[in-house]
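Iron-sulfur cluster co-chaperone protein HscB, mitochondrial, pasting as requested.
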Amino acid sequence: MSMLAQRVNRISARTPLRLLSKIKEDCTMPQDCWKCEKALDCLKEKFFCPACSAIQPLENENFFDYLGVRPSFDVDVSVLKKHFLELQSRIHPDKFSRCSKKEKEISELCSSYLNDAYHTLTEPLRRAQYLLKLRGEGTNPEETASSGEFLVEMMELNEEADSLDSQAEINEMLKRIDDRIDILCAQFKEDFESGRTSAAKEAVVKMTFFYRLRANLNKKLGFS
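Structure tokens follow.
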């Protein structure tokens, strides 16, 4: 058995089955390993060929599937982190420094995809935007809310933020912003799960404004 195969087997033994398996409802035909050309059972190992241990290319799957969690706005960030670290330990490019050029390229692509998936799903705004994308409803970063009342509130909040000088005042406003973001997250979850996609999209547009406002206030405090 090769050193790579031994390493993969050791890691696999420590990795939960839910991360080593990908249950696909539409999996009817086995795929072939790019290296040894043996048939792969897509209901079993999804990262490495069980025959030759070669790392396998990305499939057409979403971030939730790749990190082994159910597609939902409610995700356990601690579970996401645990899954991320487990997968990273298996597919990081450093693990393939002595492997073939193709294996290195696949590892780099998989690792990049994994990082993007993790950072997207751990942040509420990006997670909400991604869920809308999966539903075929992308969001425009420059899109504004349709409510005239909210547009007026946006201008007033921006003016208030510009006028603040003391750290205490900025921290107080940051607390109010966090409270509004929490409310909008709850609204998005309810609307999205109820199939009210337009309302969910509106909540994301409002969340985007508050995220920007929070970032601007943090800059005033010296945070990037």
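Note for the archive: The longest strand covers residues 31-32.
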